[in-house]
Specification:
Elements (H helix, E strand, L loop, with lengths): L1 E4 L15 E4 L7 H17 L3 E7 L2 H5 L11 H11 L3 E6 L2 H4 L3 H12 L4 E5 L12 H11 L2 E5 L12 H9 L3 H8 L4 E5 L6 H4 L5 E3 L10 E8 L5 E9 L11 E6 L10 E11 L7 H20 L6 H7 L1
Parallel strand pairs: 1-4, 2-3, 2-5, 3-4, 5-6
Antiparallel strand pairs: 7-12, 8-11, 9-10, 9-12, 10-11
Helix pairs in contact: 5-6, 7-8
Length: 326
């Protein structure tokens, strides 16, 4: 799948991708609510024999307007693109979002992006999608613009879970902040996953017999510190079970930066420098401070046993989960 970054002169859209069905949104998390929008776009694309594209924005608009409080991204751009590809999209367009862009009129958005650049035949988006300076463009504006410019508009209602509550990215962030990764997976439709480069840490785990693959998550990550049963996917697609600690390592350091440390079961290779993905299957316990290394090692053994037991019985919750976390 191709990822495009908007630049009229340097990155014209290939003619083969013009005239497609365009799903528009931030799609942070690509959760079950987003998937109803995306599924409708794919359905229309298949029916009409035209490309299916996603138009999204980078960085997240909330982070642009509040740079001191960047939003915790459930799916940073590379991971989001991989999920969208797994769903069946031909291309993702990551439109640069900045304050200048936010001041453009809704009509300019329609003409310069949807009509002139993409040649959209259909736009599919959520019922509450707004765009343009001061959010002047809404559903009625979009539908009127479609009538004037020859593209259809499909609006999708908010998706509600089995308890009739709306599925949203903010709700999922709240669950992750409480360590409720299983509940978050139910709303995402797949296990919550992070991707990052494996970096060198203090290498204490190696001396204790539990070497870890260390990954630095963004400082705004709201995942609850603690111990998790996880699966790690290597860059070549190979999967490994493991147990991971996310937090500040209170037994061995003071005031360190938050780090995700994954002990990969039955693995003795070198992962330094690889971009790996870690999928979260269960929260085992909170982060604790131990009185020395011996009780720490004893607890790590117990954590390993519990994680192995939990992971031995897991099954994909759907095709998307199978492709991401299995």
């Amino acid at each position: 799948m191709t990822v495009f970054h908007r630049n009229d002169k340097k990155n014209p859209l290939p003619e083969s991708l013009r005239g497609g069905v365009i799903a528009i949104g931030n799609f942070d998390g690509v959760h079950r609510g987003h998937q109803t929008v995306l599924a409708r776009a794919l359905e229309l694309s298949d029916q009409r024999g035209v490309p299916a594209l996603v138009l999204t924005f980078e960085p997240h608009p909330r982070s642009v307007f509040n740079p001191d409080r960047p939003v915790f991204r459930l799916t940073p751009a590379p991971l989001r693109a991989r999920i969208l590809e797994a769903l069946g999209f031909h291309s993702v367009i990551e439109y640069p979002f900045d304050r200048e862009f936010s001041q453009r009129s809704a009509e300019e958005f329609i003409q310069s992006i949807l009509v002139d650049w993409l040649g959209a035949s259909e736009v599919v988006t959520g019922f509450d999608f707004h765009f343009g300076k001061g959010r002047e463009g809404g559903p009625a504006f979009l539908m009127d613009a479609g009538g004037r410019n020859g593209f259809g508009v499909t609006l999708i209602d908010a998706f509600r879970d089995e308890g009739t509550d709306v599925v949203s990215s903010s709700r999922i962030r709240g669950l992750l902040g409480n360590g409720e990764v299983a509940e978050a997976a139910g709303l995402l439709g797949y296990r919550f996953t992070v991707e990052a480069e494996v970096i060198k840490g203090q290498q204490l785990g190696r001396t204790l017999g539990y070497p870890t693959a260390n990954m630095a998550l963004p400082p705004e990550a709201e995942l609850k510190p603690g111990i998790y049963a996880v699966k790690l996917r290597r860059a070549d697609g190979r999967m490994h079970d493991g147990v991971a600690s996310f937090g500040y390592r209170p037994t061995v350091t003071d005031n360190g930066a938050a780090l995700l440390e994954t002990f990969v079961f039955d693995f003795s290779g070198d992962l330094y420098g690889e971009i790996c993905a870690v999928s979260f299957f269960g929260y085992l316990r909170p982060e604790l401070k131990f009185d020395g290394l011996d009780p720490l090692v004893a607890q790590i053994r117990r954590d390993e046993e519990e994680a192995r037991a939990l992971l031995s019985g897991v099954r994909p919750i759907g095709e998307l989960d199978r492709r991401i976390a299995f």
